Inverse folding.
């Protein structure tokens, strides 16, 4: 068996990734495909933590724009991530992949609370740990939760799954000349004002010297290639 480049990874999946081409919610077919991709890397012996977003269901900013109290709207956003986490864990169970959901907000009847030591134990036992409810605090995002949980569990890299297969010099949908960065340093990304993750998440990864690989979850085999250390998407490094 060829060795993977990383032993432990933190995969950030946006809520939109679960939606596919639908306008809202969870597309079962898409979820099942993503689970298949995750299963492939688990079978390589890689320990996988997942931070899941909630944008396919609810975003705090959007709620606040309609006049809702921002913190209330953010808590609703965090609850949306719990639903996504449960859907993902259930799809994993159906695909014979062991998974546990840990929530940053306590909902003990539904999922485990986030307990760092227990999360690490699950990972060591080969279970996928899905971190729900972001950081548990309003005014943050699940990108920041990914940087935080990645740092806490000692992940060697954060894999940010997006719709685009990396970071480009310009928007590839608008500019046919846009070039993909294969590798870029944190400082260079800041210098070029590239939005790799939100600013808080990016700063935390940079401080912790936690590399980020941006890639497309919709490209078959891309997740596996990133984990094998191949040139896939964009690697942001110290
Ligand atoms: N959220 C929050 N604190 C966190 C993480 C998320 O308040 O630590 C809320 C916020 O309202 C956000 C929503 O949960 O809009 C969904 O998360 P996010 O927008 O990051 O999801 P994604 O864009 O990845 O689907």
């Amino acid at each position: 068996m060829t060795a993977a480049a990383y032993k432990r990874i933190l995969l950030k999946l946006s809520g939109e990734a679960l939606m596919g081409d639908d306008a809202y919610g969870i597309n079962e077919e898409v979820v099942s495909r993503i689970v298949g991709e995750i299963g492939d890397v688990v079978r390589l012996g890689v320990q996988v933590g997942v931070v899941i977003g909630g944008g396919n269901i609810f975003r705090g900013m959007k709620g606040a724009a309609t006049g809702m109290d921002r913190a209330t709207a953010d808590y609703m956003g965090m609850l949306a991530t719990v639903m996504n986490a449960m859907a993902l864990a259930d799809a994993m169970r159906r695909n014979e992949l062991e998974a546990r959901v840990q929530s940053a907000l306590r909902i003990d009847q539904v999922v485990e609370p986030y307990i760092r030591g227990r999360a690490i134990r699950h990972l060591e036992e080969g279970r996928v740990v899905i971190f729900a409810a972001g950081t548990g605090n309003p005014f943050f995002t699940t990108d920041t939760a990914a940087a935080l949980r990645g740092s806490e569990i000692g992940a060697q890299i954060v894999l940010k799954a997006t719709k685009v297969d990396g970071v480009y010099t310009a928007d590839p949908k608008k500019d046919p000349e846009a070039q993909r960065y294969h590798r870029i340093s944190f400082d260079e990304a800041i210098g070029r004002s590239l939005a790799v993750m939100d600013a808080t998440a990016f700063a935390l990864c940079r401080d912790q010297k936690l590399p980020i690989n941006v890639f497309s979850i919709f490209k078959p085999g891309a997740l596996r290639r990133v984990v094998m250390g191949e040139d896939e998407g964009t690697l942001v490094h110290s």
